């Protein structure tokens, strides 16, 4: 029944709203006794969502196939990339953190009655905060090691990497400075 | 293989049924990818890819380069976010001991990854080369080719591979059931020796 619901949802071409697909996937977690035949029939379709750009399918464009979860995810994320990265990043994280803390209780109480309840509960689940600090620190460590291993100090890619690392460090110290004061 | 404790990937998790990341986790992963994408090509070259895996996993250089060559299916010397996402899912499946489930749920893309030559068949040597990814032991590999090579060409086509994934999934679920039942009966068994010791002391 779960797989039929998923298929009917996909046929309505509302795949653009990825929250719907994710919500149904999460709600399906307790229902592990779905008949194997249904899982097998559906697993190829789901498998194609992860491997939308494997060797055979590499020529397919992202987000063009119904049920291609990863395909339209990548398209959506690409569009949002420009607005999230860069100097706006710290502001987004700070404002997002405050908003989450203040509204967490109200969201949890509303989760049962609002559509996509499981999605909003997931929004409240915590990755370590501040998330971007963890991600940036780790990226900085990895890139610094990569720079040390580079053989050509005068190569334009090495110089580009060096400038990029310096930019990340400046952004990090600016953020720390704002947090302290 | 163990993910480095406290690393960003260590905090991520897969959906239990579909063995995929949630939308929120994918968004965070995309930010991470873009931070590592130094040259703004929406790709990671082999140097960045190597240092990333060296930092977050316990893999050796040869293993990392095998994975890179596997994912660089266009032979561009770079991998994009799609391949990066697939790699992260494989890493998380291994970390959380969900290899059987992952291969079952995503049998087609896994098959295409292992089919290096594009012949729609996987030889035992290819499987063996990637056994560190999916934690398949030598004995299991021998049994796999013995039991599922129906056509007898010593290679697996997709249908044979799919049968193998269904079989391993069945075994995995039976093992989980057995472990659960053991967990239920273990507390009862522990009490008996204690009672026996008490009774022996009295007499």
From TrEMBL, chain A:
GO terms for cellular component: CatSper complex; sperm principal piece. Residues 34-69 are annotated as: Disordered. GO terms for biological process: flagellated sperm motility; sperm capacitation. InterPro entries: CATSPERZ. PANTHER family: CATION CHANNEL SPERM-ASSOCIATED AUXILIARY SUBUNIT ZETA (PTHR42155:SF1), CATION CHANNEL SPERM-ASSOCIATED PROTEIN SUBUNIT ZETA (PTHR42155). This is Catsper channel auxiliary subunit zeta.
From TrEMBL, chain B:
Residues 136-171 form the EF-hand domain. The gene is EFCAB9. GO terms for biological process: flagellated sperm motility; sperm capacitation. It comes from the Eukaryota. This is EF-hand calcium binding domain 9. GO terms for molecular function: calcium ion binding; calcium ion sensor activity. It comes from Canis lupus familiaris (Dog). Gene3D superfamilies: EF-hand. GO terms for cellular component: CatSper complex; cytoplasm; sperm principal piece. InterPro entries: EF-hand-dom_pair, EF_hand_dom, EFCAB9.
